[in-house]
Amino acid sequence: MLLFGKFYQLYSPKWVYLIAIVIFEIGSAVCGAAPNSTAFIIGRAVAGLGSAGAFSGTVIIIVHSVPLRKRPMYTGLMGGMFGIASVAGPLLGGLFTDKVSWRWCFYINLPIGAVTLVIVTFLLRINIPRKSTESLTMYQQFLKLDPLGTLCFMPSVICLLLALQWGGTTYAWSSGRIIALFVVFGILLIAFIAVQIWRKEEATVPPRIFVQRSVLSAFWFTICLGSSMMTIIYYLPLWFQAIKGVSAVKSGIMNLPMILSLVIGVIMSGGLVTAIGYYAPFMIGCCVLSSVGAGLLTTFQTDTGHAKWIGYQVIYGIGLGMGMQQGSVACQTVLSKADVPIGSSLIFFAQQLGGTIFIAVAQNIFTNKLTSGLQHIPGLDAANLAQVGATTIRDLVKDPNTLRLVLEVYNESVVKTYYIALAMSCVAILGALTIEWKSVKGQEKA
C-alpha cells in the first residue's frame, strides 16, 4: 500500500487504479486455475498486490472527484461496502465451495473486475495538474519510487510476522531462528527509517508527512483499531463454531450483528461528519464504544445466550464503524491534495499492518492456551485435538463430561484473544485525543 501511495502521487490516479485492478484480476485467475499450492500462493500474492492498490486508489479517486466537505459521506459509503463485502464474501465462498468448486471463489472476480474496468475507463474523469514525472527518464522515475526504502521495509515486515507466527508454537521464543528474525526486523526497520530521512521528499513516506500531528495520531489510532477489528473478525466466528457447534457458513451469519452495526456506524458517522464538520468526536466515541463492546465480549461463557452475543456485537460494531474511516478523513483535511495519496496509503497500511500483526499474536496466545488447557484433561489426545478444526470437536469427543471440559478450554482460549481487541481499543484513545480538531468545512489545502 505504501508503494502504491507513491504511484498515485507520481502518476495518473485513474491509470494506476486500472493497473491495480488488472493485477488483481491476473492474481485471481492464477488462483482459480492453480494446479498446486505453489501456484496458488503466487496467485494470492499477485492478487493481494492488486487489491492493495485498488483499495487505496478508491480514496484517491474520491479525493480528486469530491470536495473535502462531502468526502466523509463518500468514504463512509465505501466503508459500508467493505463491511457488507466482509459478510457476503465468506458466505458466497462457502456456497461456491459446497455447490460448485472452490475455484469459483476466485473466478467470480473476473467478470466483476471486467465490468469495473469498463466503467472506470469510460466514465471516470479526473482533472489533475500535469505530473512532474512526465519529463523524466524511466530510470529517474524508478528512483523516485524509493526502491531502496522498499527493499528494506518489505523484508522487515515479513521477518516480524514470521517471528510472531512461529514464536512459542513452531519454535521456542528463545530459539535462534526467532531471535534472528527479530534482529533482522530491527536492523531493516532502522535502515528503512534512515533511508526515509535521507531521501526526504522522494522517500516512500516523507518524514514531514509522517510526523505531522494529525497524521501521526491517525496512524496510531488506525493501527490500534485495525488490530482490534481483525482480531474480533477472525476469532468471533471461531467461538461460534467451537462453542455453539455451527458450520463455518452459519458462524458467518451469526456474525451479522457486528458487521451490520459496523456498516450503520460507518455510514452514519460519515454523514454526521459531513454535516457538522468535525471528525475527532467520532474517533473518541469509537474508542469508548468499541472498548465497552470488546470488554463485554470477554465475558463470553459456554452458555452465553443469543441476547448477549447479539447485543455485545452491536455495541462493538457501532463503535468500530464510528471511527473506521476517520483516520483517512483526518489526513485529507490536514494534507495538501498532492500529499493525500501518501497520507491515505499510510493510514490504510496501518489498518492492514495492525490486523496482520495482532492476528499472529492472537494465534500464538490462542494456540498456547488451548494446548496447555487440553493437556490437563485426562484421556484426551491434546496435541491432535488442538490441530483439528473447531467444527470437528464434537465428532472427536463423544463423552459429554469430556466435551464439556474441552468446550470450557476452547472458550477460555478464544476469549483470551478478545483481551487483545479490548487492549487495542483502549490505547487507540491516545490517537483520538491528540489529533487536531480540524473541520472538513474549512479551506482545502492546494
Automatic annotation (TrEMBL):
Which InterPro entries does the entry link to?
MFS, MFS_dom, MFS_trans_sf
Gene3D superfamilies xrefs: MFS general substrate transporter like domains (1.20.1250.20), Multidrug resistance protein D (1.20.1720.10)
Q: Where in the cell is it found?
A: Membrane
Q: Per the record's keyword annotation, is Membrane included, yes or no?
A: yes
Q: Which residues cross the membrane?
A: 15-34, 46-67, 73-92, 104-128, 148-166, 178-198, 218-240, 252-272, 278-300, 346-366, 417-435
* Database matches in Pfam families: MFS_1
Q: Which PROSITE patterns match?
A: MFS
Domain of life of the organism in this record?
Answer: Eukaryota
**Taking every annotated instance into account, which residue ranges of this chain make up the domain Major facilitator superfamily (MFS) profile?**
1-440
Q: Which GO terms describe its molecular function?
A: transmembrane transporter activity
GO terms for CC? plasma membrane
Kindly state which keywords UniProt assigns to this record, in alphabetical order: Membrane, Transmembrane, Transmembrane helix
Topology class, membrane: Multi-pass membrane protein
Question: What is the protein name stated in its UniProt record?
Answer: MFS toxin efflux pump
Give the originating organism.
Trichophyton interdigitale
